[in-house]
Design brief:
Length: about 260
């Protein structure tokens, strides 16, 4: 397989100024090829994002996430004012899944973020458009690797700021659930997680069940056991190391869990 098919790369990019009266509207349902994702920085007001959930007016400075094939439309309904943006279209192994997770967790419209704007500018610069419109001069191989690294930095920053924002806005029990979901292989009790986030174990258990449809103890046991089985099948690690890396307190505890599922 060609590394160019899996490395994160730029399909298209631009800094665009749409003059008054010019058409500017896109329907993502019919756009191809599949797997392309976009991050668009709205530098001025006037952008609308339509979906089955309704229409969102994108504030100036905000970022919009969208994908080819999704059920959204975006553009400018009011053509009386100019509209300006910076955007990049990305492709690569796993990027569409990253966008789906980001849209589900943080929403399709993200607030202004200077760090994210800088990361986007760096990707655009390395893709061929410099800060002052000059082509980027790079060797072919070095350019591919540098661009993939810059795209990775952009996506990493997007997720880091999104998670930080969630932590600031979530209630203690929501933060506890996110903690469990993001780190299910840490060997700790539900009581310890609840205490760390300032909620009761009972409240955490009820909220987890309501959100995921499964009690936390059941979900954690199934998730940890699935990882232990994968490690046993795919690696030569001893049972004690597999237990440690999948969240079981000991090899004996892992062995008992395996026996219970085999008996059931």
């Amino acid at each position: 397989m060609d590394p160019g098919d899996v490395l994160w790369r730029v399909l298209g990019f631009g800094r665009q100024e749409v003059p008054p009266g010019a058409p500017y509207w896109f329907d993502n349902r019919t756009r191809r090829p599949a797997g392309v994702v976009y991050l668009q920085h709205s530098l001025t007001p006037g952008l609308s994002l339509e979906s089955a959930a309704g229409t969102v007016e994108v504030p100036a400075g905000s970022f919009v996430l969208f994908r080819h094939g999704e059920d959204t439309r975006y553009g400018r309904r009011d053509g009386k004012r100019p509209y300006a943006c910076a955007w990049v279209g990305l492709m690569g192994a796993g990027l569409e899944a990253h966008w789906q997770v980001a849209q589900a967790r943080y929403g399709a419209v993200l607030p202004a973020d200077p760090g994210l704007a800088q990361a986007l500018d760096r990707v655009i610069a390395l893709a061929g458009l410099g800060q002052h419109g000059q082509p980027a001069n790079q060797g072919a191989e070095a350019g591919v690797v540098a661009l993939a690294t810059a795209v990775h930095g952009l996506v990493t920053h997007l997720f880091a700021t999104g998670e930080a924002r969630l932590r600031r806005t979530h209630s203690p029990v929501e933060a506890a659930i996110d903690d469990l979901l993001s780190a299910p292989y840490h060997a700790r009790t539900l009581q310890a997680v609840a205490r760390a986030h300032g909620c009761s174990r009972e409240h955490l258990a009820r909220a987890f069940l309501a959100r995921l449809g499964s009690p936390p103890a059941t979900w954690l046991a199934q998730t940890r056991l699935a990882r232990a089985r994968d490690l046993h099948r795919l690696t030569a690690l001893p049972l004690a190391a597999i237990a440690q890396q999948s969240g079981f307190p000991s090899a004996q505890a892992l062995g008992r869990a395996l026996k219970r599922t085999a008996a059931g």
